[in-house]
Design brief:
- Helices cover 43% and strands 17% of the residues.
- Helix 2 packs parallel to helix 3, helix 12 runs parallel beside helix 13 and helix 16 packs across helix 17.
- It has 21 helices and 24 strands.
- Among the domains are: 173 residues, 2-enoyl-CoA Hydratase, Chain A, domain 1 (Alpha-Beta Complex); 210 residues, 2-enoyl-CoA Hydratase, Chain A, domain 1, CATH 3.90.226.
- Strands 12, 15, 17, 18, 19, 21, 22 and 23 form an eight-stranded mixed beta sheet that branches.
- The longest helix has 31 residues.
- The termini are far apart.
């Protein structure tokens, strides 16, 4: 027995030593590797490897297999890099190669504004893609020239929101979803109880898409100098156009191959010192390493904290989503910190738990009691619970293509009794009260139980209306008229009084500074710092800048891009099955393309 224990212990220690040595070797490699020098005259390359989220993340090791969270850079750093390049003489131009991932249309609009500032400084922006659709063309529209190859396609087919419905599939599996809800448009439950979308749901989606598309038309029209009515006509008449058509009508500037673009960039800035088959360049990630920020803010009298609310809202604490207690703690720390004078809450959330949203809102209220200005900046999504936590801020700022509203509540109660019976599983229950199994997955809710839950949902909805009415200086009846679970664009929300002005994160920070009467201020971005292992993981998994004449390498193990929305929707629905209860959440997983 002693020999067995000795050999086992020796094996374990040997394995740990081997892992430690490997870890040390990898760490040493990354530490020892010196970054390439940035040329004195070069092009800043922003390509499809860019993955940005509101607050950034370090990713996880599962991403090596293509199924985990990839590292991301904070969106505001992408914008700061463009603004920094605007003022720096060695950056002669920007190349937008294909398109990056910025977290939605509202985030892309903030990047677009930064690119317009770069262009206004007299610097050139080049853009190239094999084909363009409305999403990839949005940022490219500010470029001059825009390259497209001879057989490239210009796709202006319009926006589409694809909604999946699982009621028939769940019935065939023996799973029943019982629901309670408030609001004509609170359609988050529809995928579980209907085979197709309701007319009310289709109505709100049509209006939302029309509003978001109007933002695209207006911004592209301004960037390209093409009449708004002409863009609308092209979308209505055809959608798919050739490279020649795009060139003749001012949508692109050049028809040419990628090597011709490379040759033009070489003539602009010269060859890359280390790779003579391409032009002098610096990738965005490398450029960010070079930028220096004042991290202390000691020289400033006023400090504004930017706190991020990104993801679904859950009860308790969470490192990956919005935990009600986690975010409340961050807000409380900012309130009690004598060095913090104001708070900007950056919201990018479809909502979630109503109780967690209330926990967060309480801390927002206490910030105002403490006479610290609190401003909300809305990103791509600030809907349902995401609007709940925002509604009583001093000011709310949204992009015109932010998706917000969805002021409504629903309850979801899955029942897998038939599924269990079909596979030969039976559940016997012993209970001390008539309502003890109301949240159980193993039996169908009675009419009395559903009525009990409907009372609870109605109470939560009434509370939601009251909180919005107080925050927006409206009556409950006025709020109910524009609520009922309906989603709105930021532009529509401004007209309805749900937000105060249109703008981006910097505009929200400026409002906080104005409330303080500050001429100069320091912004304390509360982004994750990460431990040593997380930083190393991020380096292992993060996008690596490479000369654009080369081909980037991707993981061989990944979910096909076409199946990714289905996979993500199934994951989300599985999570809802695990957590029956009452939610203030955006309808389904809203992906617009």
């Amino acid at each position: 027995m002693k020999d067995f224990l000795r050999s086992t212990l020796a094996s374990v220690l040997g394995t740990l030593c081997a892992v430690a040595i490997l870890f040390f070797a990898i760490s040493t490699y990354f530490i020892a590797e010196l970054p390439a020098e940035i040329p004195d005259s070069c092009v800043l390359v922003i390509d499809e490897n860019i993955f940005a989220t509101e607050r950034g993340s370090f990713g996880d090791m599962q991403a090596l297999l293509g199924s985990g969270e990839a590292p991301s850079v904070p969106l505001r750093k992408v914008i700061q890099a463009i603004d920094h390049a605007t003022d720096q003489g060695r950056i002669k131009a920007i190349l937008l190669l294909h398109s990056g991932h910025y977290g939605g249309a509202a985030a892309e609009r903030a990047v677009l504004d930064a690119l317009l500032r770069f262009r206004a400084a007299g610097k050139k922006i080049y853009a190239y893609a094999a084909d363009y659709d409305m999403s990839s063309y949005y940022l490219a529209s500010v470029a001059d020239p825009i390259f497209v190859p001879p057989l490239g396609i210009f796709d202006m087919s319009g926006y589409a929101a694809e909604m999946m419905f699982f009621a028939d599939a769940m019935e065939s599996l023996g799973v029943e979803m019982q629901v309670t809800r408030v609001g004509k448009y609170k359609s988050a439950v529809e995928p579980f109880v209907l085979p197709r979308a309701s007319e009310a749901n289709l109505e709100q989606m049509r209006q939302l898409l029309d509003s978001l598309q109007d933002v695209w038309f207006a911004d592209v029209s301004a960037a390209r100098g093409v009449a708004l009515e002409q863009l609308q006509t092209w979308l209505a008449e055809g959608g798919m156009y050739s490279a020649e058509f795009a060139l003749e009508n001012g949508l692109v500037d050049r028809i040419g191959y990628f090597d011709e673009l490379l040759a033009e960039l070489v003539s602009l800035v010269g060859e890359d010192p280390e790779n003579h088959d391409t032009f002098a360049q610096v990738g965005l990630m490398r450029y960010l390493e070079e930028m220096e920020e004042d991290e202390s803010g000691d020289a400033y009298r006023y400090r504004i904290a930017v706190i991020y609310a990104e993801g679904e809202i859950f009860d308790g604490f969470s490192d990956t989503e919005i935990g009600g207690d986690s975010l409340a703690l961050e807000l409380r720390e900012a309130r009690l910190d004598e060095n913090i004078d104001a708070v900007v809450l950056r919201v990018n959330s479809p909502g979630g738990s109503a109780t967690a949203s209330e926990v967060i809102l309480r801390e927002m209220q206490l910030l105002r009691v403490a006479e610290k200005p609190v401003i909300v900046s809305m990103g791509r999504l600030a809907a349902s619970g995401g609007y709940w936590i925002a509604c009583q801020a001093d000011k709310i700022v949204a992009e015109p293509n932010t998706i917000t509203g969805s002021i409504g509540v629903f309850g979801m109660f899955p029942n897998i009794e038939k599924l269990l019976q079909d596979v030969g599983v039976h559940v016997d229950t012993v209970q001390t009260g008539p309502w003890a199994t109301m949240m159980s997955l193993y039996h169908r809710k009675s009419a009395d139980e559903l009525a009990q839950m409907q009372v609870y949902v109605d109470t939560i909805y009434a509370g939601f209306l009251d909180r919005v009415a107080v925050g927006r200086s409206l009556t409950r009846e006025q709020v109910h008229e524009i609520a009922q679970g309906r989603v709105w664009s930021g532009a529509d929300a401004l007209e309805l009084g749900l937000v105060d002005q249109l703008g981006n994160l910097d505009d929200a920070i400026a409002l906080a500074a104005e409330a303080l009467g500050a001429a100069h201020w320091f912004v304390d971005y509360r982004e994750p710092e990460g431990n040593y292992l997380q930083q190393l993981t991020s380096q292992l998994l993060g996008a690596e800048d490479y000369p654009v004449a080369r081909t980037p390498q991707h993981s061989a193990l990944h979910i096909p891009i076409g199946l990714l929305p289905l996979w993500q929707e199934l994951q989300r629905n599985a999570a809802l099955l695990e957590r029956p209860g009452v939610y203030a959440r955006l309808p389904y997983r809203l992906e617009i393309r």
